[in-house]
Amino acid sequence: MRACRFLPVLFLACLALGLSACSSARPEATVEAFYRAAAKGDVERATGQVSFAEVPANRMVQAKGKVQMIVGEMQSRVEANEGLEAIEVLETEIDEAQGTARVRTRVVFGNGKDTNETHRLVREDGDWKIVLR
Fold it and tell me: Which domain holds residue 43?
């Protein structure tokens, strides 16, 4: 009988742990999650890594369409270069007072080619999100 009372508590604890594991406590983790989602063509997961806080309501559909286009282009580039080999963080600058960060990365493809990228991020509700340009 006591085990039946314990199960809901255990379930809620596991749910809370699982949800917290999805948060991006580090800006580097957000950038990496975006690249990995884009490489797989996972628009929903990639969109979850992007800040839409500064996007006016009447531009939201256009902004999400832009993310979808970026994901499609990234997926094509990854496939054309024999996959995604690594995402290396070259430099991270965090301004805690402003709640912003800048992350420079080197993306290495399966065929050995690479590209350097810089992303600006903003902290939203404790998570880091990429600022849509």
Answer: 24-131
120, 131 in Cβ contact below 8 A? yes
| Total domains in the fold of the chain | 1
> Helix, strand or coil for residue 58?
helix
Length of the chain: 133
Q: Tell me if 14 is assigned to some domain.
A: no
**Spatial distance between the Cα atoms of 83 and 80, rounded to a whole number of angstroms:** 8
Supply the DSSP symbol for 132: P
What is the tens place of the pLDDT at every residue in 72-107? Answer: 999 999 999 999 999 999 999 999 999 999 999 999
Q: Are strands 127-131 and 50-51 parallel, antiparallel or unpaired?
A: parallel
> Can you give the pTM of this predicted structure?
0.80
Q: Is residue 29 part of a domain?
A: yes
Nearest-angstrom CA–CA distance, 34 and 93: 18
* Averaged pLDDT, 55-76: 97
pLDDT at position 8: 41
